[in-house]
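Notebook entry, structure prediction.
Reason for the run: the old model in the group folder had no record of what sequence produced it. Starting over properly, with the input documented here first.
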Amino acid sequence: MGLAHSFSWPFLRGTNDMKVTELVAQIAAPAAEKQGCFVWDVEFVKEAGERYLRLYIDNDEASVNIDQCEAVSREVDAKLDELDPIQESYIFEVCSAGAERELKRPSDFARFLGSQVAVKLYSAKNGRKEYVGILKEYADGDVTLESGETFRKPEIAQVRLRVTM
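New structure, fully documented this time:
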């Protein structure tokens, strides 16, 4: 996937410099709640010359199903059409956060302590750029695995859940 943008978009209409991802998360939250879900993440990215607005939903009970994604998509799409906050064209997608979702917020790490994760680094450490292990601790952006490896926030490119069969 492309890089998610975290700055204010100049083509956002009437949002008082709110990030497009924050605006969509606010719009989508009630629709997701109606389906027993919550907003996991929102991305606004450019891939292969197209803009994609992706809304990831999740729930605490079981996996998100296609009917929930469709219901949230219809409601949020209608609201985006009504508000028309984004000046340029984009493709809107609603999907499950996925089994191997990226962990971004402190609450994500807290929820998945004790789970297997893959830690990708910007630069190799001991000859490796990816480490897989059980998430033992998360503190101020630093990640510690049960094996004892600790990674500082500035060296971490991404942390994802890792599904084992």
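Summary: Helices lie at 20-34, 66-83, 106-111.
The old model has been moved to the deprecated folder.
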